[in-house]
Specification:
442 residues; 2 domains; six-stranded mixed β-sheet; alpha+beta; three-stranded antiparallel β-sheet; binds manganese (II) ion; Creatine Amidinohydrolase, Chain A, domain 1; Creatine Amidinohydrolase
């Protein structure tokens, strides 16, 4: 087990310097003197004066761990200390943000603003700036020179996969937090709790509000495990519980953990399958090395899955033929994984260079979100699955290969739904570091 330093505070200064270099380099192509990044604005429900939960601009939280203050701005000019225009409106309906005093403040010039007008008065000549944010009407109104220029975004997004030590630390801590939740969830499952109860115990264990989680947790019991993005939490536990699939994360300074575990009650075929998939997941992680294309890794996983289907006599066919004929797609219709960081499905998974050229997912596997070559300092997930999805099984039943499938076993497994095991992997010094297993073993 290789450790990742989790001393975020001491690593921040170097992180900030690297981020500044990345954005400065992107600016070179734009002939601009600086970049303006809004934290974002509140969005309101139709005909309502209540806003949706605030989600900060990921470009903003690249620079500093402030995720809860809308209408703030970062102004970065090459060679200068970055400027934070920190929103502190006069407001007796809400509690305005207090003066920042966290570990990062020393590296910043911080000015308090009371309003958007206040902000616009402090940015200098707007024509010389690049704007990176969603509030494009505002940027036009202010007369900003370039709004979300693609060359700039491509350069910065490509670089985002190259994690700093600070980011690796945040991602390891996010994993450590999420694992506390996963332990509580397993315990709740063993007690026979409902999906709703499991979700609440998870959140209590990680001490997150639901909106602080990087994504809505997937908590499925029994056949719900077969719904890839199952979005409900049943308040009633099933009469008999067979299985739990929980895909749930945590957030540290804006960085996401994204972890999935599957559990079974009792000893039996489904539990043996979970153990087999766990073995294959660890084995594919062992194969990871720099220079390998992630799409090839995805294909290798299909071959391993075919091996499991054959070993358990679920399908009677040569492994290579199962992959070739795309039969394995029935059991694993999603990608092996994705980049992870400031966003759960981090940007630029298909991008092949800072210029923005993309490599599409293979035609056979359209859901694959990552086709980059694996390099040091990338962080991505490895999340193979094995599902019994009635809709896809029905198609298989009508295909030429139907007679090679053991339908009796499938019928036995459908009530268990399916399996996914997802770990977060950091590439460091040529080796995959498993942030998730570090957390479970720690
Ligand atoms: Mn994932």
């Amino acid at each position: 087990m290789q450790e990742i330093s989790i001393e975020v505070e001491s690593l921040y200064k170097d992180h900030l310097a690297q981020i500044q270099r990345r954005y400065e380099k992107a600016l070179e192509s734009c002939q601009s003197s600086g970049v303006l990044i809004p934290s974002g604005s509140l969005k309101y429900a139709f005909l309502d004066d209540h806003s949706y939960p605030f989600k900060v601009n990921p470009h903003f939280k690249t620079w500093l761990p402030v995720e809860d203050n809308d209408e703030s701005f970062i102004l970065m000019r090459p060679g200068e200390k970055p400027l934070l225009l920190f929103n502190q409106p006069e407001d007796y309906w809400h509690q305005p943000a207090s003066d920042p005093d966290d570990f990062w403040v020393e590296e910043w010039e911080i000015q308090s603003i009371r309003s958007l007008i206040d902000a616009s008065n402090r940015i200098g000549d707007p024509r010389s700036l690049v704007f990176v944010g969603e509030e494009t009407d505002l940027a036009r109104e202010w007369g900003i020179g370039q709004i979300n220029p693609q060359t700039f975004l491509s350069e910065v997004h490509y670089g985002r996969a190259n994690k700093t030590d600070y980011e690796l630390a945040c991602l390891q801590i996010a994993n450590n937090i999420a694992v506390q939740g996963h332990r509580a969830a397993e315990e709740a499952f063993r007690l026979g709790c409902s999906e709703f109860e499991i979700q609440h115990r998870y959140l209590a264990a990680i001490a997150h509000r639901e909106k602080e989680s990087p994504y809505s947790a997937i908590v499925g019991l029994n056949e719900h495990c077969a719904i890839l993005h199952y979005q409900h939490y049943d308040r009633q536990a099933p009469t008999t519980t067979y299985s739990l699939l929980i895909d749930a994360g945590a957030n540290k300074n804006g960085y996401a953990a994204d972890i999935t575990r599957t559990y079974a009650t009792g000893n039996g075929l489904f539990r043996d399958l979970i153990n087999a998939m766990n073995k294959q997941q660890l084995a594919i992680i062992d194969e990871i090395q720099p220079g390998l294309n992630y799409a090839d890794l995805h294909e290798k996983m299909h071959l391993r899955l075919a091996g499991v289907l054959r070993d358990f006599q679920i399908v009677d066919m040569e492994e290579a033929d199962m992959v070739e004929s795309n039969l394995t797609f029935t059991f694993l219709p999603h990608g092996l994984g994705h980049l992870l960081g400031l966003q759960t499905h981090d940007v630029a998974g298909l991008q092949q260079s800072p210029r923005g050229d993309e490599k599409a997912a293979p035609e056979k596997y359209p859901a694959l979100r990552l086709t980059r070559t694996i390099e040091n300092r990338q962080v991505f997930t490895i999340e193979p699955g094995l599902y019994f999805i009635p809709m896809l099984l029905n198609k298989l039943r009508q295909s030429a290969h139907a007679s090679q499938v053991n339908w009796q076993l499938i019928e036995e497994l459908v009530p268990c739904g399916g399996i996914r095991i997802e770990d977060n992997i950091a590439m460091l010094e040529g080796r995959p570091i498993n942030l998730t297993r570090n957390a479970f073993d720690g």
